[in-house]
Each structure stands twice: as structure tokens, then as C-alpha cells.
Amino acid sequence: MILHSVETVHPSRSDVFTLYPIGDIHIGAKGCEVDTLREVVAEVERQPNAFWIGMGDYAESINLSDKRFDLRSIAPRYLPRLDDMPRACLDDLVQLFDPIKKKCLGLLVGNHEEKLRLRDSNDIHGALCVALGVKNLGYDSLLRWTFRRSGASTVVKIMASHGTIASRKAGAAANRMEDVASNFDCDIALFGHGHKKIVGERVELGMPESGAMRITERKKLVLMTGTFRRNHQEGTLDYGEKAGYPPVPIGCPAIRIAPWAPARSRFQVTI
């Protein structure tokens, strides 16, 4: 578990921020929708108050020695570099994310990168963090995002995990995410890995630590953050197809954060 604190200074209580959890890209796979990823990167770059967090599995990270390797599932541009495919993917990821590296809250590692590191001693995730100059958030992370203006501050707490939740049914995935998120004091819980876009929200009641007794509210979001990889692609015998994975929407959610707003209108999600 990695703990990380970031701060944003802004001049007005009316400022609204957008957080993009970008992950499960699987660049190198024929099913990776690189053009859609470029559109999201351009959106983050264009918006002055947009930020992003990496959710893991940026590269397919399946090389020649992996039992999942299938030549027909590799994007054609990587075929000349099959013996150095992780590095080829890393080079492209650095180029893709370079325009928005200063807007990154950090990068989680995914199970594809972890398997490559443990099996082949090839830490492309660590290399990506170093190349972009961003925080390595490990597999699970707690982030404290502090917003400051004119001597006042407010905090958004985020729990982010690449996760292990990959249920076939959205309801089962949502239930498991709710269970895991209940273990953490957070406003937003983010989970990758499952390749679905799922949003759950609830309002938690409480009371002040001191002063007059009254009911307080906190809105809590629980999200699975999507993918940029198709499970079914013409002309392949992809492992996702063989496993019977369902087709999935492509892209990631956008989380609108109004740090100074009342609890029920503090967060809104577009998927």
C-alpha cells in the first residue's frame, strides 16, 4: 500500500476539476484502441483543470515465452520487435503520455506488468514512472488530494487499486467493489482490471467531531474504470475470445470534482 499526498491551488470556490482514471490499455495488442486513448489524452491536455491517474496494465506485456502469446493477437507495428516488445510498448507509452505527465497523480502497476517483472525481471512499470517523472503508486494506493484557496483547504480522499475483480456479471463486480471499498476511509474508490465501466454511489451519514450535534453527509463513489482493449478482434484468436470474455465498452470514466460543493453535488461521473 502506497500513501501519496498531492496539492492543487486554485483561486475560486467555483472551480471544478475532472479526474480521468486511465488504465487497462494493453498497448501492443491488436485489440488496443490507441486512437481512443489519444482522444482522452488530448482532452486531459486541453482542460486546464483536468488530471489523471494510471490504473495499470498499460502494455499487453505478453512476450514470446508467455503461454498466452499468440502472434495473431499482436498489433502489426510491433511484429518487427517481437524479441523486444515490452520495450517497444514502453517507448510508445512514454510518447503518448508525455503531453500530460505534469497532470498525473501517479501510476498504479497492473498484473500484466507485475507478471513481467516477477518472471522476467523486467520492470517496465517502474521505467514508465521514471521516464514520465511521476509517482509509482504500487498495486494499491491511498491518495490525499488537497485543494487550497485563500488560506482555506478541503480534501478529497481516493483509494485506487488495479485490483483483482474480474467478475463476468456487472452486479457481482459491483458487490465485490463495494465490499473492498468499505475497508477504506475514502471519498472515491477506483478499481481497474475488470475491463468494465461500473459506477456505484452512496451517501454516508455522520456527525461533527465537536460543536453542535447535526447530521453530516459524505458522498462516496465506487468505480471500475474501463479499458482500451477489445476482447474480440477480426482475424485473431485472442485469449479473451477463447476465455469467453464479453465485448466491453472502450474508454474510461470522467469524474467531475467540485471540492467546495455540498456533499451530494461534490462528485459527478460521466461514463
Notes on the protein architecture:
With 271 residues, the chain is of the alpha/beta class. The chain has one domain: Purple Acid Phosphatase, chain A, domain 2 (4-Layer Sandwich), CATH 3.60.21. The protein contains six helices and eleven strands. A six-stranded mixed β-sheet has the order 1-5-6-7-9-8, with helices on one face. The chain is globular and about 65 Å long. The chain starts with a strand and ends with a strand. The mean pLDDT is 89.
What keywords describe this structure?
271 residues, alpha/beta, Purple Acid Phosphatase, chain A, domain 2, six-stranded mixed sheet, five-stranded mixed sheet, 6 helices, 11 strands, 23% helix
Spans of 5+ residues with little confidence (pLDDT < 50)? none
**Strand segment tally:** 11
Tell me the Rg in angstroms.
19 Å
> Main sheet: which strands, in order across?
1-5-6-7-9-8
**Given the helix and strand composition, which structural class is it?**
alpha/beta
Q: What general outline do the C-alpha atoms trace?
A: globular
CATH class: Alpha Beta
- What fraction of residues sit in β-strands? 25-35%
Tell me the major beta sheet: 6 strands, mixed
CATH architecture descriptor text: 4-Layer Sandwich
